[in-house]
Known about the structure:
The chain has helices at about 60-65, 130-135, 155-165, 185-195, 215-230; strands at about 25-35, 45-50, 85-95, 100-110, 140-150, 170-175, 205. By secondary structure, the protein is an alpha/beta fold. The protein starts with about 25 loop residues before the first strand and ends with a helix. The protein binds guanosine-5'-triphosphate and magnesium ion. One of its GO terms (biological process) is division septum assembly. Its cofactor is Mg(2+).
Amino acid sequence: xxxxxxxxxxxxxxxxxxxxxxxxxxxxxxxxxxxxxxxxxxxxxxxxxxxxxxxxxxxxxxxxxxxxxxxxxxxxxxxxxxxxxxxxxxxxxxxxxxxxxxxxxxxxxxxxxxxxxxxxxxxxxxxxxxxxxxxxxxxxxxxxxxxxxxxxxxxxxxxxxxxxxxxxxxxxxxxxxxxxxxxxxxxxxxxxxxxxxxxxxxxxxxxxxxxxxxxxxxxxxxxxxxxxxx
Length: 230
Ligand SMILES: Nc1nc2c(ncn2[C@@H]2O[C@H](COP(=O)(O)OP(=O)(O)OP(=O)(O)O)[C@@H](O)[C@H]2O)c(=O)[nH]1
Ligand SMILES: [Mg+2]
């Protein structure tokens, strides 16, 4: 008799109602994919980008942050995001019972680096179109560099961090998949990241599965979008 195959269901994020103080995201929509500057969407709004190794959890984090399942494509296969993907975001702040303020900004999902199947002759960390975007986008006000909480010691992440620091990009380190660590590992790895990825603001531990760190990261982004409107 044929045995029935057991299906192993991967845990899925449960979407959240918890929102931080200040502006909160009320709408998020995909707007464009680009590999050249003339394909970037028009506008002069503030931009917040997400970068990290392939499979580090960028797209999952974007969906968790926007509380929008399926906004960015998530995959167990590394190298899923191949283009620079732009999303328009509306954040709304209630100033009083009758007054509100809205902020329009772009969220940018960048292709992952360090994917083994990319061109091995390319000695750069990432393709030149990604470097062009990071170095030339006048709207880019914050780049969130994602580091896998389980593997903070990978040389390629250190290389990426050094490159970004040298280029003077405003950085926020986000430590992903924190739900996969026990408290001892978490403490050890966060200490390692503090020492090896020093930034103006502390690294934010994040779980897209549980939305851990969401309020902290949204508050950090709010500083940028509110500041950018002044
Ligand atoms: N347990 C857990 N798994 C996660 C988390 N974030 C992402 N994952 C899983 O990690 C895998 C990769 O996630 P993606 O969000 O597609 O990663 P990415 O960085 O966008 O990958 P590329 O687009 O290929 O560079 C998927 O199987 C996700 O379900 C998290 O916080 N916790
Ligand atoms: Mg992706």
